[in-house]
Amino acid sequence: MLASVVKWTVIAIFIGCSVGFVNSLFIKIVSAGCQFSSRWKYFYFLLPFALFASSYIVMKMAPDAKGHGTEKAIEAVNRNDGNIDIKVVPVKLISTFITVVSGGSVGLEGPATQVGAGIASFFGRLCKMDNLDKRKMVVCGISAGFVTVFPAPAGAALFGTEVLFVGKISYMSLLPSLVASFSSFYIAHFMGVKPLIYSIKYIPSNNAGPLFRLFLFGLIIGVLALFFIKMVNYTENAFKKMHIYPPLKGIIGGILIAVIVYMIGSNDYIGIGEQVINRAMSGEKILNGAFLLKMFNTSVTLGSGGSGGILTPMLFIGASAGNTWAQLINGNVSFYSAVGMVAFLSACSNTPISAIIIAMELFGNSIGIYAAIVCGISYFVVGCHSIYPTQLLMFSKSPSLQVAKNCEIDEIKNIKVVKSYKYFKDLICKVWGIKKSIQ
Predict the structure, then answer these.
(1) Model confidence over 371-412: pLDDT tens digits?
(2) Looking at the DSSP assignment, which residues form a beta bridge with residue 283?
(3) Radius of gyration over alpha carbons of the chain, in Å?
(4) Closest Cα to residue 404, out of 414, 418, 390?
(5) How many angstroms separate the CA atoms of 67 and 284, rounded?
(6) DSSP output for 43-83
(7) Number of separate helices (H) and strands (E) present in the chain
(8) Are 272 and 107 a contacting pair, CB within 8 Å?
(9) How far from the centroid of its chain's Cα atoms is residue 394's Cα?
(10) Using an 8 Å Cβ cutoff, are 123 and 109 in contact?
(11) Which strands form 392-393's sheet, in the order they lie side by side?
(12) Dihedral of CA 373/375/376/381: which sign?
């Protein structure tokens, strides 16, 4: 065991430092590119050409670089024994840069996790690791990549081990994932990547009112997450059904987004969207319904051939939904924006534990304990759905649902509902001391 700890500590440090350096450099280049392109008021009119170029590059050079990144990293672990073509790394970086600087509604964490997984997989093959070790190395790469964009090292490490499955955590990958995450985090900090730490001070009153509102908010976030997952899948399928040259779909999607942005008259709902998240966290009231615009723009960007991550848009959607909810109930805007952000992540990606840890790292324990309630509720409401279709469903979320186990989310076709009212009747009998169950 001691030898194993030493071995994986050394491997994880190497992966973390390598991934942290590459992704930090990439983030700086993208940031400079966005600053340059945003000088032009109508820079988003470049989107049709950018999505065409992104789709063309991916199609010709590395088809596995298509989509939002993290999904391909999960697929590499669950399907391909930790094998990722190293060509994916430069292709993903280039196609994401083109998409983001032109206003594509994507994030950087998907490419960062896929690049991290690709680098880890390359070193695994170079060192002739067996399949089990390669899978563990890819998990390290996922966590190391995630933390460069979203600097919550403990939460990033848990995300890498939790996002592979629904109902299970890869505990054997936890130690190397933690080491890789913290190593990457410190490299990113050394290279000047700005950490996202928000100071939110809010203590709900000592009564049942806030808990009831949090419960309702959890239900709403779960429904919104389910709606977003369906929208992303529907949009992707709609573009697939267009029997035209694939890069031309990028032109159609880019024109559609550019026209909507021009009609709205605001650039807030395209690009990475960090500025809107920061405004929501600072307590500023943003446009009601902003989350719907972001959902649409993200779905079209990715469905038509754009390259980038989906997690940062999910944070935007969750924060803006929380902002709207706070305005409706006259609640604390910063508090509900923060809770909504992590809860939406929990629901869409089926990662409630890592979302709770991230909430505590970013906002402090006083916010995290309330975020835990909403994360848990939204996680159950979303049911057997995920933004990452190659996640393995290991256990049903409820005894009232009978689903196939140990299979990918995307493969689940039949869900049987058990007669749950019988459980409720049995519970009543036990509470009231009735020996025979009500039939």
Answers:
(1) 999 999 999 999 888 999 888 888 777 777 777 777 778 777
(2) none
(3) 22
(4) 414
(5) 32
(6) GGGGHHHHHHHHHHHHHHH-GGG-B-SHHHHHHHHHTSTT-
(7) 17, 5
(8) yes
(9) 20
(10) no
(11) 165-166, 392-393, 407-408
(12) positive
Q: Which residues contact 122 (CB under 8 A, 6 or more apart)?
A: 84, 86, 89
Q: What is the pTM of this model?
A: 0.90
User: What DSSP character marks residue 164?
Assistant: T
The answer to whether the beta carbons of residues 148 and 20 sit under 8 Å apart is yes
| Cα gap 221→223, rounded to integer Å | 5
Classify residue 231 as exposed, middle or buried by CB count within 10 Å of its CB (0-12, 13-18, 19+). middle
For residue 308 the two structure tokens come to 């980038």
Tell which residue, 148, 20, 106, has the closest CA to residue 301. Answer: 106
Q: What is the distance between the alpha carbons of residues 124 and 180, in angstroms, rounded to a whole number?
A: 15
Complete domains list, the chain, with CATH:
2-190 (1.10.3080.10), 208-381 (1.10.3080.10), 398-432 (no CATH)
Tokens encoding 105: 């509604």
Instruction: Report d(CA 213, CA 226) in Å as an integer.
Output: 20
pLDDT digit string, tens, across residues 169-215: 888 889 999 999 999 999 998 988 876 666 676 666 666 668 889 99
Tell me the pLDDT band of 437, cut-offs 50, 70 and 90.
Answer: very low
List the alpha helices (DSSP H) in 364-402. 365-381
204 conformational bin, left if phi > 0, alpha if psi -120 to 50, beta if neither: beta
CB 327 within 8 A of CB 340: no
CA distance to 31, 92, 340, 431, per residue, from 345 (Å): 24, 23, 9, 37
Asked whether the beta carbons of 251 and 52 are under 8 A apart, the reply is yes
**Rounded CA separation 115/260 (Å):** 32
- According to DSSP, the β-strands at 416-417 and 401-402 are antiparallel
User: d(Cα 371, Cα 357) in Å, to the nearest integer?
Assistant: 10
Query: Are the C-beta atoms of 388 and 74 separated by less than 8 Å?
Result: yes
Q: Phi first, then psi: give them for residue 166, nearest 5 degrees.
A: -110, 115
Give the position of tokens 């990475």: 272
How many residues are recorded in the chain?
Answer: 439
Sign of CA dihedral 194, 139, 392, 71: positive
